[in-house]
Structure formats: C-alpha cells, structure tokens
Amino acid sequence: MQSLFKYVDDREQKNAARAMALEDLLIKKGLITQDSIDTILEYFETKMGPFNGARIVARAWTDESFKQYLLQDTPGAIASMDFPTGMAGAEGEHMKAVANAPSDHNMIICTLCSCYPFPVLGLPPYWYKDPSFRSRAVREPRAVLKEFGVNLPSDVQVHLWDSSAQIRWFVIPEQPLGTEDWTEEELVKLVTPESMMGVAMVEKP
C-alpha cells in the first residue's frame, strides 16, 4: 500500500536484510537454531494462514446455519471444522467474526499495536501495524477505505472492530453476486486476507 503510506521502494529488502542479520546473530549465540526457525516458517506457510480463513468464509457462504453458529460462537464453529491443532492458540485464543451486509461494512484495526487472528489471516501486513493506518482508520474510515479501493455508498454504515489481546476480529465479506451456485472449493479461491480485514471486497472473476 505504498500510495497510502508512502513506503520507500526498498523497504522489503532492508527489512529482510535486517531480519537475516538478527537471525544469524541469534544462531551464533546459540539462542535459536535453524531447525526451530524452519519449523516456525513451515507452520505459518502450511497450517496457520489466510487459507484457513478462506475455508471458514466459504463455508459461511454456503451454509447459513454454520454462518449463524460462527457469528454467535466463533471458536466453537471453527473447532467444528477439520483444522490443524492449534487454531485456538498462537493469537487465536479469542477470535470473533463479524459479517458484512448490503447496509453494513466492517473493518478490523488494532489501535494499540498489531493484534491479529494469525490462525485465520496469517501474519499481519506492514500497513496494518503502521501508526498512520491505525489512527486514520479511526478518524476517517471511509477515506481510508476509499484509498484501498473500497467506495461505499453513503447509506452503508462502517463499523470498526479493535483487536486486542482479549479478542481478535475478522470479517466475513459479502459473497459476490453470481456465485450462489458455486462450490466451497470454488469460493475459497475468491477470498483474500484483505477482504477478511474489511479493506477489500470479494470480486467474481
């Protein structure tokens, strides 16, 4: 989101180099091992990430009873699905889902830091942790959403949900028109992390 927060072009490369230097130092000091790092990376690449959230959203789109269960008891609904062990841990202890509707649009933020539902959304992007996003989203949510490409009619209410150590929110976006007969497997491919954060809409290809 460089247009929104004006990040320098080489930010990714600089941060990657800084992370590698820190990693090398910790390994040399014997505080961590390469195996432990590889295990953590593999965990977030294969077990905890937005692919889980996409499955949850697709199930909610195709099963109204599951959607209501998800909204009323998010941990219980997630536990009823076939997910890896650990969905209730690693930043997922107290997850809560909210659903977009024609008259309501939800967006998640974390005003204090960067609390995030890792099991369903993966690791938070740079801009989510940026103080500019965190403060502007509270003051002018419609303007921020517009910069992300989400232009809402004036009669649509915007709801902000502030994640914290006590509760971590994610959004069930609206199902795009024309996909009502699609299977869960087909719908999963449409769902993005940004749509589950409320800063993007799900579009039919």
From TrEMBL:
<dbReference type="GO" id="GO:0018822">
    <property type="term" value="F:nitrile hydratase activity"/>
</dbReference>
<dbReference type="InterPro" id="IPR023900">
    <property type="entry name" value="CN_Hdrtase_asu/SCN_Hdrlase_gsu"/>
</dbReference>
<feature type="binding site">
    <location>
        <position position="113"/>
    </location>
    <ligand>
        <name>Fe(3+)</name>
    </ligand>
</feature>
<dbReference type="InterPro" id="IPR036648">
    <property type="entry name" value="CN_Hdrase_a/SCN_Hdrase_g_sf"/>
</dbReference>
<keyword id="KW-0408">Iron</keyword>
<keyword id="KW-0456">Lyase</keyword>
<feature type="domain" description="Nitrile hydratase alpha/Thiocyanate hydrolase gamma">
    <location>
        <begin position="15"/>
        <end position="200"/>
    </location>
</feature>
<feature type="binding site">
    <location>
        <position position="110"/>
    </location>
    <ligand>
        <name>Fe(3+)</name>
    </ligand>
</feature>
<dbReference type="InterPro" id="IPR004232">
    <property type="entry name" value="CN_Hdrtase_a/SCN_Hdrlase_g"/>
</dbReference>
<protein>
    <recommendedName>
        <fullName>nitrile hydratase</fullName>
        <ecNumber>4.2.1.84</ecNumber>
    </recommendedName>
</protein>
<feature type="binding site">
    <location>
        <position position="115"/>
    </location>
    <ligand>
        <name>Fe(3+)</name>
    </ligand>
</feature>
<dbReference type="GO" id="GO:0046914">
    <property type="term" value="F:transition metal ion binding"/>
</dbReference>
<dbReference type="Pfam" id="PF02979">
    <property type="entry name" value="NHase_alpha"/>
</dbReference>
<keyword id="KW-0479">Metal-binding</keyword>
<feature type="binding site">
    <location>
        <position position="114"/>
    </location>
    <ligand>
        <name>Fe(3+)</name>
    </ligand>
</feature>
<comment type="similarity">
    <text>Belongs to the nitrile hydratase subunit alpha family.</text>
</comment>
<dbReference type="InterPro" id="IPR018141">
    <property type="entry name" value="Nitrile_hydratase_asu"/>
</dbReference>
